[in-house]
Every structure is written in structure tokens, then in C-alpha cells.
């Protein structure tokens, strides 16, 4: 159990690091696409990779738990918040384009990378343009949509390990599979800092047409107008979650401010005043009903952060 004085002493050390913002008791709800979540004890925003290199060994030695936060679009954050340190990657967003490769820092959003690809007449990233989230989060999750996934385009990635050292892994070492990667499977607690993707030459009008088509598909089928964390369950082999949930008569079912979307049953949405507890209770109810009706065990896709 860490005390307030442990956190204060670490805070003083962290404040000496250049290009690092240090904040205490920061509400996390605004950093989560679900718009729920209590405060974090410490909230760190490195503005350069050098700051991340310096802070990692300090916080690892302090033994205070830490969590790397991208755009919070695949998270359910506890109403009680997080007793530990959040490292927010939102200010790590430099990039460079060389021939057919884009190398970007992990805080850059997928839609920004898709724009960059379009401006450089590079095709093959259209699938990711509408996936909310950062490049680091997309690597962690091997995010994908409409037949494409990060695995198709990633060449290599760089990480900062717990000792503050830079590590580079190539595509096969990243162990990218359906909605998972080495970061999830082996949980090395590294921070991804740079990812290189390789695309193919294409024509701007074709890229734009594909992005528009997928955008319209997404907005017509998914509840993009309400806070959520995207698909709430992983697709079980041989099934689609939406129809399974509809069969269990859970579409539109609501607990507190959390509702199984009436537009797409595979999403849980925040109707405005949901708590994380409402969301978790609704997830459990849906899982139980689907299991009862179809015998399928649903697995939650977003990560949980904090105490539940
Ligand atoms: C409306 C909506 C639609 C969505 N549609 C899709 C979809 O079509 N396909 C899909 O795959 N997903 C979808 N998602 C889910 C989400 O957008 C993706 O999983 C995304 O890749 C998460 O990225 P993030 O930056 O928000 O990660 P976060 O939610 O911030 O974090 C997710 C995990 O990644 C880890 N992480 C983040 N950055 C780093 C880093 N730099 N280094 C190490 N670990 C890191 C975090 O620690 C955490 O464990 C959707 C979400 C929403 C809200």
C-alpha cells in the first residue's frame, strides 16, 4: 500500500523532468470515450519520448501502479478512478512520411494518419480512418474494421521498457492476432512510442471514395452519436454478437444510464448519466442472458481500469 508521502516524493522527482506535465487528482472521464471514470492520483503527459524514457524507471522503482492511456476509446474506467499513475500519450504525435512508409508517435490518432495517407496518395489505411483511438492503442488491440486490421500495415514498432530503454520489434515479433498483440498477451508493461506502417501507392480519389463509403456504413449502423467504447464484446468464433444479443431480447435493455444500443446491439451506450457500475452490471446481464439462450460465453473487448 503506497502512502501519500510516496506519491508526493515521486511527484517532486517527476517535476524535474523536461517536457513532462505532472497533474494530481485528474478526472479521467473526459479521457474516456464512454465519458465515465473517477480521478487518477497522478496524471503524466510526456511531450517528448525523452521524458517517457526518464520517467519509466522512476515510476517502476516507486512500485506505484501505472497505466498507459491512449485516447481511452477501449476502456471502462471505474467510478472510483485509478489509484496510481496514468501516462497519457496524447502529446506524442510527431510523424514522418518516407516513400510508402509512415512512422508516427503512438499518440497520433488513426484518423490523422488516414488523412496523412490520403494527402500522400497512399492507400490501404482507409479501414482505420473511422476507428477512434491512437496509434499506440491500435497496436495494443490490433484494431481493425471492414476486413482490414493493423497487422496488414504494420512493419515495426518501438517501445520504451521499464528501464527506460528503447526496444524495436518487427511485425512477426509483435504477435498481432484478432484484437490482440504482444502487449496484451505477454503484458511486458512497455510503452509503445513509434509505429511504422507501410501502404501502397493509390489515387486520392479512390482513397477518398473508400473512406467516405466506410464512414457512411459506420454512421448508419453504429451509435456514433452517443458515448461508448465501440463493440462491447469480442466476436465469438462462428457468431456475430449483435444477433446473439437480439435473440436474448437484450437490445434496448437499460440499467441506470447504460443501454444496449437500439441501433446496434453489440454496443453499450451512455445515455448521458451512466456510471461505470451501470455499464458493468449491464454487461453481466447481457452475458448471462446470451449464455442462457444460446450457450455462447461472450468475452468483453474493452479493458477495465481501476477497482470494480
Ligand atoms: C465508437 C467506437 C467505435 C469503435 N470501432 C472500432 C472498430 O471498428 N475496430 C476496432 O478494432 N476498435 C474499435 N473501437 C475500439 C477502439 O477505438 C480501439 O480499440 C482503439 O485501438 C483503442 O485505442 P485507444 O488509443 O483509444 O486506446 P485506449 O483505450 O487508451 O487503451 C486501450 C489499451 O491500449 C493500451 N495502450 C494505449 N496506448 C498504448 C501505448 N502507447 N503503449 C502501450 N499500450 C498502450 C492501454 O494501456 C490499454 O490497455 C471503437 C471504439 C469506439 C468508441
TrEMBL record:
<dbReference type="InterPro" id="IPR036318">
    <property type="entry name" value="FAD-bd_PCMH-like_sf"/>
</dbReference>
<feature type="active site">
    <location>
        <position position="179"/>
    </location>
</feature>
<keyword id="KW-0133">Cell shape</keyword>
<dbReference type="GO" id="GO:0008360">
    <property type="term" value="P:regulation of cell shape"/>
</dbReference>
<keyword id="KW-0573">Peptidoglycan synthesis</keyword>
<dbReference type="GO" id="GO:0009252">
    <property type="term" value="P:peptidoglycan biosynthetic process"/>
</dbReference>
<dbReference type="InterPro" id="IPR016169">
    <property type="entry name" value="FAD-bd_PCMH_sub2"/>
</dbReference>
<dbReference type="InterPro" id="IPR016166">
    <property type="entry name" value="FAD-bd_PCMH"/>
</dbReference>
<dbReference type="GO" id="GO:0071949">
    <property type="term" value="F:FAD binding"/>
</dbReference>
<dbReference type="GO" id="GO:0071555">
    <property type="term" value="P:cell wall organization"/>
</dbReference>
<dbReference type="InterPro" id="IPR003170">
    <property type="entry name" value="MurB"/>
</dbReference>
<feature type="active site" description="Proton donor">
    <location>
        <position position="231"/>
    </location>
</feature>
<keyword id="KW-0131">Cell cycle</keyword>
<keyword id="KW-0521">NADP</keyword>
<comment type="similarity">
    <text>Belongs to the MurB family.</text>
</comment>
<keyword id="KW-0285">Flavoprotein</keyword>
<dbReference type="InterPro" id="IPR011601">
    <property type="entry name" value="MurB_C"/>
</dbReference>
<comment type="pathway">
    <text>Cell wall biogenesis; peptidoglycan biosynthesis.</text>
</comment>
<keyword id="KW-0274">FAD</keyword>
<comment type="function">
    <text>Cell wall formation.</text>
</comment>
<feature type="active site">
    <location>
        <position position="301"/>
    </location>
</feature>
<dbReference type="InterPro" id="IPR006094">
    <property type="entry name" value="Oxid_FAD_bind_N"/>
</dbReference>
<dbReference type="GO" id="GO:0005829">
    <property type="term" value="C:cytosol"/>
</dbReference>
<keyword id="KW-0560">Oxidoreductase</keyword>
<dbReference type="InterPro" id="IPR036635">
    <property type="entry name" value="MurB_C_sf"/>
</dbReference>
<keyword id="KW-0963">Cytoplasm</keyword>
<dbReference type="GO" id="GO:0051301">
    <property type="term" value="P:cell division"/>
</dbReference>
<feature type="domain" description="FAD-binding PCMH-type">
    <location>
        <begin position="35"/>
        <end position="202"/>
    </location>
</feature>
<keyword id="KW-0132">Cell division</keyword>
<protein>
    <recommendedName>
        <fullName>UDP-N-acetylenolpyruvoylglucosamine reductase</fullName>
        <ecNumber>1.3.1.98</ecNumber>
    </recommendedName>
</protein>
<dbReference type="Pfam" id="PF02873">
    <property type="entry name" value="MurB_C"/>
</dbReference>
<keyword id="KW-0961">Cell wall biogenesis/degradation</keyword>
<dbReference type="InterPro" id="IPR016167">
    <property type="entry name" value="FAD-bd_PCMH_sub1"/>
</dbReference>
<dbReference type="Pfam" id="PF01565">
    <property type="entry name" value="FAD_binding_4"/>
</dbReference>
<dbReference type="GO" id="GO:0008762">
    <property type="term" value="F:UDP-N-acetylmuramate dehydrogenase activity"/>
</dbReference>
Amino acid at each position: 500500500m503506497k502512502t501519500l508521502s510516496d506519491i508526493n516524493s515521486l511527484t517532486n522527482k517527476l517535476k524535474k523532468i523536461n517536457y513532462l506535465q505532472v497533474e494530481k487528482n485528474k478526472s479521467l472521464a473526459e479521457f474516456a470515450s464512454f465519458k465515465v471514470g473517477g480521478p487518477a492520483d497522478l496524471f503524466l503527459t510526456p511531450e517528448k519520448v525523452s521524458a517517457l524514457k526518464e520517467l519509466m524507471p522512476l515510476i517502476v522503482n516507486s512500485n506505484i501502479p501505472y497505466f498507459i492511456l491512449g485516447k481511452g476509446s477501449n476502456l471502462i474506467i471505474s467510478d472510483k478512478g485509478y489509484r496510481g499513475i496514468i501516462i497519457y500519450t496524447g502529446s506524442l504525435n510527431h510523424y514522418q512520411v518516407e516513400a510508402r512508409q509512415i512512422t508516427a508517435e503512438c499518440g497520433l490518432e488513426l484518423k490523422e494518419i488516414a488523412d496523412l495517407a490520403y494527402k500522400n496518395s497512399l492507400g490501404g489505411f482507409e479501414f482505420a480512418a473511422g476507428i477512434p483511438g491512437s496509434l499506440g492503442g491500435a497496436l495494443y488491440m490490433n484494431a481493425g474494421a471492414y476486413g482490414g486490421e493493423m497487422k496488414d500495415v504494420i512493419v515495426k514498432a518501438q517501445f520504451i521498457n521499464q528501464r527506460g530503454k528503447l526496444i524495436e520489434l518487427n511485425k512477426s515479433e509483435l504477435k498481432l492476432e484478432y484484437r490482440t498483440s504482444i502487449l496484451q498477451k505477454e503484458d511486458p508493461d512497455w510503452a509503445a512510442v513509434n509505429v511504422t506502417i507501410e501502404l501502397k501507392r493509390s489515387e486520392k480519389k479512390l482513397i477518398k471514395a473508400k473512406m467516405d463509403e466506410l464512414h457512411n456504413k459506420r454512421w448508419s449502423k453504429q451509435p456514433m452519436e452517443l458515448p461508448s467504447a465501440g463493440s462491447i464484446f469480442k466476436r465469438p468464433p462462428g457468431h456475430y454478437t449483435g444477433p446473439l444479443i437480439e435473440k436474448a431480447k437484450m437490445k434496448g435493455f437499460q440499467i441506470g444510464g447504460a443501454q444496449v444500443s437500439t441501433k446496434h446491439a453489440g454496443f453499450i451506450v451512455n445515455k448521458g448519466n451512466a456510471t461505470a457500475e451501470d455499464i458493468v452490471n449491464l454487461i453481466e446481464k447481457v452475458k448471462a442472458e446470451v449464455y442462457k439462450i444460446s450457450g455462447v460465453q461472450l468475452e468483453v473487448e474493452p479493458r477495465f481500469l481501476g477497482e470494480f
